[in-house]
Amino acid sequence: MISKFSLPFLSKHTFLLLAFSLVTSFAWAQQRPKAIDGIIVKVNNQIILRSDLQTAIAQEEAQAQKKIADQDRCNILRALVQQKLLVARAEIDSVVVDEEMVEGTLDQRMGYFVSQIGSEQKLEEYYNKSIKQIKDDLRKPVREQLIAEKMQSEITQKLSVTPNDVKKFFNQIPQDSLPYFSTEVEIGQIVKLASVSKTQKDEVRNRLLEMKKRIQGGESFAELANQYSEDPGSAKTGGELGFMKKRMLVPEYEAAALKLEPGQISEPVESQFGFHLIQLIERRGEEYNTRHILLKPNSTEIDMDATAAELNKLRDRILSDSISFSKAAKEFSDDKPTKDNGGLMMNPRDRSAFIPLDLVDPSIFFIIDTMEVGNITKPLEYRTDDGKQAMRIIYLKSKTPPHQANLRDDYQKLATYALNEKKRKALSDWFEKNKNTVYIDIDPEFNNCDILQGNLF
Fold first, then answer.
1. Does a structural domain hold residue 51?
2. Which region among 32-36, 267-271, 317-321, 335-339 has the lowest average model confidence (pLDDT)?
């Protein structure tokens, strides 16, 4: 019998520890108890420290606003072991993630962190570390999280459910356990990051072109990079990045660099980080070494009107049925978490697209409450999780009144739950098959948790 109808295929603690913001955990890491640290779990070359467990427990207790039970502590440790097992097997199976993805995720989370504390300077003062040092501290756990997610995806990505699977799943739920759903909505969004004004971009391009002339006139690229580059990581080394493999740097940078001959200098190249003046130093097989000067346009001069105009044109196309909202989101939205889902926001509890009204983002609650199904708002100002200025349009796809779960009204939701249950079982089977293929050593202190007994997932 299925008794936990509303849970996703991962346990609450698994999802928390595999997908939580590393920004939050990093903040907790600064407040760790002063107990003696040490290794409590080994999974091949992967380790879990006592302080890792303490940090995760502290975060969970902060969210629950109370002390958690011993069994919940065991579940948290179990979730940490899950992630380490996924990472250990990924190493054996040669499953990796691109450095570009790691750096992009790091930048996003650091941006969020900065937005929460106020500025990069305040962040550095709080931790008594440079931004680069903080990112270096987070790089390994971010990479591990992404690898674990990729392994999990590879284990479950081919799974699907049929109408018969959904019906069978529903019929397994005891009648007296059928949940009663409050009012739920499906909400879509298309986000466009506000762009720096053309005047600002042209000014930066012209500054880089002037530097290029100075270098061609005999000045040192390295000295100019040291003096002017806004990439703190490479400026002190004369802009040199060292040998990189393909796909380790953002596509715009790599494409421009690989067109150059050694010693040649590019035109200004725009990327998500700003504008680069690039010099190819050397190519060695599939690797290449470059130096660059990075300049960033003045981000205080944001062209919100141009961003709104772009969204208004897109909104008009959707309303005239020349493109669907889902397709428009996938093609044009700058919000990665929702664009691949056709723009739909996710219910944080079960990862479905059906969101109870009490879980709707307070910033749009009253907007949604007054909308008719099918309506799309005019562009609204918005600030992303990592603190970037943006605008978005909001779409109310559906609104379901309170009711008890049934196949007719809740088929899509039930299909999601049935698929999640199938994925949970696949992960559990995978663990049973693979837990003996790696070395796992757990401190006897945690024998009562029975971490390796029964279903881990």
1. yes
2. 32-36
